[in-house]
Amino acid sequence: MPDDAWLVVGLGNPGPQYAGNRHNVGRMVVDELASRFGARFTRHKTGAGVAEGRDRPGGTRFVLAAPQTYMNESGRPVGALAKFYSLPAERIIVVHDELDIPFGDLRLKTGGGHGGHNGVRDIAAVLGTPDFPRVRVGIGRPPGRQPAADFVLKDFTPTERKELPLLVGDAADAVIDLADLGLDPAQQRWNAPRASR
Question: Which of 114, 130, 178, 188 sees the fewest Cβ atoms within 10 Å?
């Protein structure tokens, strides 16, 4: 695997019953990237669906991964893929939903806490470090007293679904910018609220 490769992990739960859940927006982003790259996911021995492609002819090489484990066990396939492709944590971009960011906004960062996200927590535990880049896709807080655990396992509302393609497209662009430009320039472009970008 060449040194310029990036592993992009879209977090979610496997199975059609979860496909439209807020918790699965990370997986929607890697699906969008695979579509752009003309790549197809195949089952990999590490327990993830994997697709490989480039953002442009001769451009950056991406390994897109959708773990086939449940969210709280995401670390095992990610650790196995990192080993298989000989990639360090700093070349692994994890795309995941984020309750503490308004719906429609993105935040990019490297390292830090897991913010209660079980998938991120498990990946950090298996890799032995939290120092991997993340594209955090805002889904907002649950309304009223609805528990967060229930909220993330619900589908997006009809109003949100109208905006979802734009959000997923922005997140896919942010992944490419992070890999091609580096964290700081990508943050300058994407960490502002969408209304001010």
Answer: 188
Q: For position 3, what pLDDT does the model report?
A: 59
Q: Which of 87, 17, 89, 8 is nearest to 49 (CA)?
A: 8
Closest CA to 132 of 165, 157, 110: 110
Q: What is the pLDDT of residues 1-60, one digit of tens each?
A: 445 799 999 999 999 999 999 999 999 999 999 999 999 999 999 999 999 999 999 999
Query: In this structure, which topology does domain 6-196 adopt according to CATH?
Result: Rossmann fold (3.40.50)
Non-local (6+) Cβ contacts of 157 within 8 A are: none
Q: Is 72 annotated as a binding residue?
A: yes
Domain positions in the chain: 6-196
Is 24 annotated to bind a ligand? Reply is no
Catalytic residue numbers, as ranges: 23
Q: Say which residues have a Cβ less than 8 Å from residue 169's Cβ, sequence separation at least 6.
A: 32
pLDDT digits (tens, 9 = 90+) for 115-147: 889 999 999 999 999 999 999 999 999 988 999
The reply, when asked if residue 85 is annotated as ligand binding, is no
